[in-house]
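hi!! sorry for the late reply, been swamped w classes. u asked for the two structures so here they r. pasted raw, havent cleaned anything up. first the sequence of the first protein and right below it the tokens
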Amino acid sequence: RSTLFPYTTLFRSAYAVVEIDEITDVNAYAVLIKKAPAAAKAFGGRYVIRTQDIVATDGLPPKRIIVIAFDDMNKLKAWSASPAQKEVDAIRINSAQSRQFFVEGDY
């Protein structure tokens, strides 16, 4: 927990953000879509956003964005280091032009 304002208590969470610019191997990416949810769920990950319905207001948006919420950065890092997620990441890297990053924030 962190207190940002005197009358508001906020909770800190961690998020994995994946931006897909292009899927280069549709068949391999279909395998990723089947494997990824179980890998995240094993560490308490919850999909917050999975969409390709993106409206750009400044610059070029990715074709698809995925945001997975975790209770804290330790759980997110454990998920990222797990064999199941390493397999998902390898499939993503080989089947799409993408980037992934981690964000910690309050809500």
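now the second protein. again sequence first, tokens right under
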Amino acid sequence: YFEQKHLQSRKINDESKIIHTWEVNCILELKNGSLLSGSSDKSIILWIFDGHYKSKKSILGHKLSVRTLAEVNSKYVASGSDDNTIRIWDQSREFLCSFIVKDHLN
């Protein structure tokens, strides 16, 4: 489902230049209707729906593939990566990384 929407978004919205360069590993629908996608390219992309999904922001910080995303509450989102970290992102501050849990093993 997301892949179809993603491809439609790329066709309809040519000005949207923020795309993943490797496979998408996880997606998360936020309570406000936006999506986050995590990829093996180490990035998270914020997608806004305005008749179709449009990429709005690339969220960077992980050193390896992003494997999981979770909305902690209305303010924070957590991401887990193959770099053995969990990052906590503050939605109210344009997804600024607020906290890093390091050395998390499997």
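hope this helps!! also noticed smth abt the second:
The chain has one helix and eight strands.
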